[in-house]
Amino acid sequence: MSGVDVGDTAPPIRRRAHDGRVVDTRAAIGAHPVVVYFYPRDATPVCTRQACGFRDRLDAFAALDAEVIGVSADDDASHRAFAARHGLDFALVADTDGALSRAFDVGRALGVLANRVTFVIDRDGVVRLRYQAQLAAARHVDRAMATLQSLSGRA
Question: Thinking of the domain 8-135, which architecture would CATH place it in?
Answer without folding.
Answer: 3-Layer(aba) Sandwich (3.40)
